[in-house]
Amino acid sequence: MKKLPNSIDVHVGARIRLRRRTIGMSQETLADGLGITFQQVQKYEKGMNRVGASRLQNIAEILNVPIPYFFEESPGMLGESMDMGANELNDFMSSKEGIALASAFLAIEDKRIRQNIMNLLRSLGPSASTQSDSDSAIHASH
């Protein structure tokens, strides 16, 4: 019988993958920096192998993030668990499209243009009518 990975190990691995892909680093580059094979990085990212404390410190240094980054929104953190929305967000932000969209959005310096893009995206979403109703109510109350 195959043992399932621990949910914290899976979350930490997903955060490693998210950060690595966000900065455009390959598994091979991370592996080289750690002195391990890229297959070992794959196992960490899938949560199949647990990342030890000293290895996590090395990964944090290479990826230029603080250690707590890997545990943000983790299952069981302060009694909270990741809901489906958080899982979907992590999946999206780990995808090529999510990273490209976030990078392109952050490259836009004009705050008004970013706000216009956000308004456009909200208007295209399935809950656009619900969103605009709640926005109207908020603006009416101010």
Automatic annotation (TrEMBL):
Do you know which Gene3D superfamilies this protein is assigned to? lambda repressor-like DNA-binding domains (1.10.260.40)
Record keywords: Plasmid
Is Endoplasmic reticulum one of the keywords?
A: no
Q: Which Pfam families match?
A: HTH_3
The record lists the lineage as: Bacteria, Pseudomonadati, Pseudomonadota, Alphaproteobacteria, Hyphomicrobiales
Highest rank taxon of the organism:
Bacteria
Q: Does the keyword Chloroplast apply?
A: no
Q: What is this protein called?
A: Helix-turn-helix transcriptional regulator
Q: Which InterPro entries match?
A: Cro/C1-type_HTH, Lambda_DNA-bd_dom_sf
* Ranges of residues in domain HTH cro/C1-type: 16-70
